[in-house]
Write a structure and sequence with these properties.
single chain; 64% helix; globular
Length: 190
């Protein structure tokens, strides 16, 4: 996975949607990462998980059977995303990653120079979901890691590997969904 390409896509989408009109601190962006992780906790409490199989079946139907393209396809994609993926654990974890990718784009961090496979990460397999999210939040709030979003991304990637979540697929789907959203997502101030 080319993380610099994902970084650039996340950042460009954020710019196009008005999220970088003022100069905000890293702490601002990291607080939003924490909010996404807490939304993942809420999704887990509600046992809300993405139904990727049904999402893919429905999108395949729209493309091959109904031959939807352009605006009709965009509407079908938005509706299907909202029904099968939105506000799920996987969706919220992808939001946290997208926020980190956007921050990396804003600050010009090179994400592909980091050795994700060879790096040291926590073992999330034997701890609960909430303990895992807490541990990742500790990394987010640690001053040592504030200027190193690749380490924070890596911890989310490690958690997702341990839980068999294809986080890169979810990031790509959420980025596609975000591109179709209105300016500042309609009414949000940040």
């Amino acid at each position: 996975m080319n993380l610099n390409k994902l970084r650039d896509k996340a950042y460009q989408c954020a710019v196009a949607h008005g999220w970088h009109e003022e100069n905000l601190s890293n702490e601002h962006f990291l607080c939003l990462v924490i909010s996404e992780l807490m939304e993942a906790v809420e999704a887990d409490r509600k046992e809300r998980h993405a139904d990727t199989k049904k999402f893919n079946q429905e999108m395949d139907y729209y493309i091959h059977e109904m031959k939807l393209y352009g605006e009709n396809y965009d509407k079908a994609y938005r509706d299907t995303f909202e029904y099968y993926l939105k506000d799920s654990v996987e969706d919220e974890l992808s939001d946290a990653c997208i926020r980190l990718l956007d921050l990396a784009g804003l600050r010009g961090y090179d994400l592909d120079s980091f050795d994700y496979e060879g790096s040291d990460t926590e073992d999330y397999s034997d701890i609960s979901f909430t303990e895992s999210m807490f541990r990742i939040c500790v990394y987010v709030t640690d001053n040592f890691y504030r200027d190193e979003p690749f380490i924070l991304l890596n911890e989310i990637f490690a958690f997702c590997r341990d839980r068999n979540i294809d986080i890169f697929w979810h990031i790509e789907q959420k980025m596609k969904y975000n591109e179709l959203r209105p300016y500042k997502h309609g009414d949000k101030s940040y």
